[in-house]
Amino acid sequence: MQDMALTWRRQGQIVGLVPTMGFLHEGHLSLVRLARAQSKVVVLSLFVNPTQFGANEDLDRYPSNIERDLAYCEAEGVDVVFMPKADEVYAEDASVFVQEQKLSQGLCGMSRPIHFQGVLTVVAKLFNLCLPDLAVFGEKDAQQLRLIRRMVRDLNFPVEIISGPIVREEDGLAMSSRNSNLSEAERGEALVLRKSLLAIVDAKTFGERNVKRLRAMVEEFLREATLGTLDYLEFVDDETLEPVGHIEDRPVLVAMAVQFPSARLIDNIVLT
Amino acid sequence: MQDMALTWRRQGQIVGLVPTMGFLHEGHLSLVRLARAQSKVVVLSLFVNPTQFGANEDLDRYPSNIERDLAYCEAEGVDVVFMPKADEVYAEDASVFVQEQKLSQGLCGMSRPIHFQGVLTVVAKLFNLCLPDLAVFGEKDAQQLRLIRRMVRDLNFPVEIISGPIVREEDGLAMSSRNSNLSEAERGEALVLRKSLLAIVDAKTFGERNVKRLRAMVEEFLREATLGTLDYLEFVDDETLEPVGHIEDRPVLVAMAVQFPSARLIDNIVLT
Fold first, then answer.
1. Pairs of CB atoms within 8 A across A/B
2. Among partner residues B10, B12, B101, which is closest to A97 by beta-carbon distance?
3. Using a CB-CB distance cutoff of 8 angstroms, which residues of chain A are in contact with residue B94?
4. How far is CA A67 from the centre of its chain?
5. Which domain holds residue B190?
6. CB contact at 8 A, B115 and B105
7. Which pLDDT tens digit goes with each residue over B41-88?
8. Looking at A164, A187, A216, which one is the last position of a domain?
9. Chain CA centroid to CA A113, Å
């Protein structure tokens, strides 16, 4: 992969990278199109990265359909699908990791303490292996996106980070490979994430800017509407990810995660 | 710097990087020559990296002579001296760091707990800013060299690491910018590092392979020969940096640090 990337670089070709864990859906494909529009060469990496899964998480149950993924990639004009095996990516005695020490502490970092070290390390590796000029990430993984931008800034990677908006199912559920793990009943309840976020937008439109009250409203709604448990619902400054108690003029990221028996789902919205 | 480096890369020029903290001596210049021999463009970075100094260390007393450094660089045919300011290198709210979790624990890592996080982070940044094909490091900083090789392996940097042998003063003292901070009396005693290492080589030649006895021999010598305090004397596997109790056939790195009132000095030798 790196040899190929070095050749492209010598030829002055613009390379766009779309890192994925596979089981592609329209969300991923929208990122491919963003890369395609700005790159001569589009690389899609397909790697279920073990180091970003905690011991009790769903690494073993992460969905996979390589054949379908490859068909999608071909249809979208992806030039290279980079699909390494875990033992090719990580040496058995791997000991160097990329850590973020501020933005990674809250939100998903609370319940997934090693997650972002795994994400940043593998993204740094993918950047060095694929040497992209630009890389595209989805806005559904809001904290991940901000951490990757922070890594690029703090480690000076020569990579432009482009983000693609959340792509949703017709009923509003944010697309996620993990949706396929939901039971039919869970799939119905999964809409509570989007509904909660839209209720917050509505309440804000009607003048409610107190985070405690907005949170209480959502918590009450969730108690009625789902058996899933709220992992977190946070209102944070969109840039620093510091919690805010009151919604002022600065953009506020509202992010949430709900744990269903078969999958943990996330969604978010930025209040501007 | 990065724009320049991207241009070189598009032109297919081989770039060699020599990272330094300045106050250059013959040791650094030997590294420049190694870079020069294999590169079209030689970049020497000159940056006293604050994040690799602990609170009670000698950041404020680190010697400097920019004018002389630049004259040396010109004489050696360095193409670019990269000399950023600290606030250009680190954002005020920098929060992403490169950490090594095994090889960095012993040796200098024991008394300098944040040192190698600072070193690896700044070297990762320099790699991304200068985009070298190869980078040259001195063997005096034995643990640093091994950690950088490990980082290149574990984060897949497309950079070849070349090492240059320790360059010594006529009397055997390993060249170091910090030598200039020594008093005349300390300068005399500073030879104890080299003498200790040579005594170990001699003893091994005569069949002594027990690390406990070799260490006792050196400790006794140091008690007589210097007022400096032994920070560490370690016998470790040259690859894993795991302590060894007995010198077998695998290469053993013998590394030591002695704290003098005006400077902490290090030296090492590999027993093969």
1. 96
2. B101
3. 154
4. 23
5. 177-271
6. no
7. 999 999 999 999 999 899 999 999 999 999 999 999 999 999 999 999
8. A164
9. 16
